Amino acid sequence: MRKHIVIMGMTILLWGLPLMGHAATFTDRSGHEIEIRSPFKRIISLYAAHTENLFALGLDEEIIGVTPYEVWPPEALKKPVFNYRKAPEKIIGARPDLVLIRPMIARAYPSFTEKLKQAGITVVSVQPVGIDDMYQYWRTLGILTGKEEEAEKMIFRFKKAIRTIRILSHTIPATRRKRVYFEAIHKKMKTFTPASMQLFTLTMAGGINIANDATSVRKSNIASYGKERILSLSDEIDVYLAQKGKMNRISPDLIRQEPGFQKIKAIKNGQLFIIDEHLVSRPTPRLIRGAVDIGHCLYPDIYTREIWQGIKRIMDNSRLSVAQSAYHKIYQE
């Protein structure tokens, strides 16, 4: 029996698909048909978010390689490193049965992925484009690895944590709601699109995106805004938030010293905060940590340590594997 599922932008439900003796096929984000006869057991992940999520699903020994850009969990840093920018022979020599990539890699390095396929390796391109897609993306990883039940549990815990955070944010009166400018790239004065994961975490925590009229750049989650428009809102920006990481290598001093920024209300009042890029940009369960961190910046009297302890208990699971236990150490910081 052969089952077929087409993923159109990662929006088709994939959960509940039995693999017991049946082949299943689906179309990945790059338009390639993928056949699954049994769970993949030797996986190389070439996108750090894939790696985080695979560990969150309870995988460890099955992950035989990762990218040079891993930051979490600690176990990922101990895995052999592979790079899609280099010749594929090293990957082929590791004998993976599955290589996970994202559409950008498929577009930019077509000969690389083609050589992997010619070597008999299944290459799957997946990446969500929003929060709803993220749930289907987690389910896809579950199906590929035989961890469908774990994927559903991960989604359930994530949604439960979201509900808890939203209940908290609903207690904040409209008169106390903070208007926030969320910086994506300082040098280019760019912010995020309203549908981005970064603004999902901000609004979940009770913040108001003051740059809601920003326009997307090349259909990405990055949006153009410009210094002139930022400064035109100087008196209205209660909090200036900036992500920091590979995309935006900044510091509080760099932002404060930007000509004209001394006029911004948030800068004058000491309401400038830096958020770890990895907590708000990657489609992983750690988005919950990002939302709580933002909440603490905006409303420290509401998003207290005690509140975080309660939320982390929701995200924790008493029946975790060794790999998952390591992954969840972040909730004990």
Which characteristics define this entry?
333 residues, alpha/beta, Rossmann fold, 4-stranded parallel β-sheet, 14 helices
Care to describe what's here?
This protein is of the alpha/beta class. It folds into two domains: 2-154, Rossmann fold; 172-301, Rossmann fold, CATH 3.40.50.1980. Helix content is 37%, strand content 16%. It contains 14 helices and 14 strands. It has helices at residues 48-56, 89-93, 103-108, 110-118, 131-145, 148-170, 197-204, 227-232, 252-256, 265-268, 277-281, 287-298, 305-315, 322-327, and strands spanning 2-6, 23-27, 33-36, 43-45, 63-65, 98-101, 122-125, 179-183, 190-192, 208-209, 215-216, 222-224, 239-244, 272-276. Strands 5-4-6-7 form a four-stranded parallel sheet, sandwiched between helices. The chain has a four-stranded parallel sheet with strand order 10-8-13-14. A three-stranded mixed sheet has the order 1-2-3, with no helix packed on it. A hairpin with a 5-residue loop joins strand 2 and strand 3 (33-36). Helix 5 (131-145) packs antiparallel against helix 6 (148-170), helix 6 (148-170) packs parallel to helix 12 and helix 6 packs antiparallel against helix 13. It starts with a strand and ends in a 6-residue tail after the last helix. This is Peptide ABC transporter substrate-binding protein. It comes from Desulfonema ishimotonii. Residues 42-302 form the Fe/B12 periplasmic-binding domain. InterPro entries: ABC_Transporter_SBP, ABC_transptr_periplasmic_BD.
